[in-house]
Design a protein that fits this description.
Blueprint: H1 13-20, H2 28-38, H3 44-55, E1 63-67, H4 77-80, E2 85-89, H5 95-102, E3 108-112, H6 116-126, E4 131-135, H7 148-156, H8 158-161, E5 167-177, E6 185-187, H9 193-199, E7 206-208, E8 221-229, E9 232-242
Parallel strand pairs: 1-2, 1-4, 2-3, 4-5
Antiparallel strand pairs: 5-7, 5-9, 6-8, 8-9
Length: 252
């Protein structure tokens, strides 16, 4: 079994520190310039997977809290316009104006610049009927200066924190260097990393994003490839964490 928060195979310590110390990997202007360049052709297949996943999730609420969406580079506007009120929690100061430019029809009611886990108690109390979507953010917790134990604690606390509330997440679980792009893989429960990579026909060194236990064990989920950059692939888990509501079947 892989140690959580570590790479498969043998990863040099300096490589781990280099990855962990990238402050603009999912935030800051460098990130947005990269996302702008890749959002079209390179990220289009992944964006279509996200759109299909969200089209199949039908929470019975008119309010949505987005956690860590950045500028919404991979979010479909059609999903956002289903809700009367959209509330966003994201620490990146550049994200809000870009989000409004990318999704001008979204009913943006509030933008909280901060860490979700810091503001969650007050925000959730103020929005008892809102659903919550974690937008490719939980697989980044280990790169935000947190220790492994704290990352595990925060992830373990999500289901109790959101009990009785509709919530869903898509989040990276593994990333590595490969030119192969596997198909989406449906799973009935949490993935075992070595078995998952073998099933997808992938090998080599893979970075564990310490997010394979976000979803409750009994929840079905899909593992979706994200061609993050030429030669680099991220494996993203997508699933509905609680109070599923009506679910539309996805095409195989």
């Amino acid at each position: 079994m892989l140690p959580r928060g570590r790479s498969t195979g043998t990863a040099p310590a300096e490589r781990q520190e280099e990855v962990k110390s990238r402050p603009d990997r999912s935030g800051g202007m460098n990130w947005h310039l990269r996302a702008l360049a890749r959002r079209g052709r390179l990220w289009q297949p992944f964006r279509q997977e996200v759109a299909a996943f969200l089209a199949g999730w039908q929470p019975l609420t008119r309010s949505m809290i987005l956690v860590g969406p950045s500028a919404g580079w991979c979010l479909p506007s059609a999903f956002l316009t289903r809700f009367d009120r959209v509330l966003v929690v994201d620490p990146d100061r550049w994200a809000r104006p870009l989000f409004k430019r990318l999704h001008p029809r979204a009913g943006l009611a509030q933008w909280v610049r901060g860490d979700f886990f810091d503001v969650a108690p007050d925000l959730l109390a103020a929005e008892p009927d809102a659903a919550v979507l974690f937008c490719n953010v939980l697989g980044q917790l280990r790169f935000a200066g947190r220790e492994a134990d704290e990352t595990d604690r925060l992830i373990a606390g999500i289901a109790p924190l959101l009990a009785g509330r509709p919530w869903a997440s898509f989040h990276e679980i593994l990333s590595g260097e490969t030119d192969l792009t596997p198909r989406r893989l449906p799973l009935a429960g949490p993935p075992h990393h070595e078995a998952l990579l073998k099933q997808l026909g992938l090998s080599g060194e893979w970075l564990d994003h310490a997010a394979s236990h976000v979803l409750p064990k009994a929840v079905p989920r899909d593992i979706v490839p994200w061609r993050f950059a030429p030669g680099r692939l991220h494996l993203v888990e997508m699933g509905i964490g609680g109070v599923r509501g009506p679910v539309t079947d996805r095409p195989s």
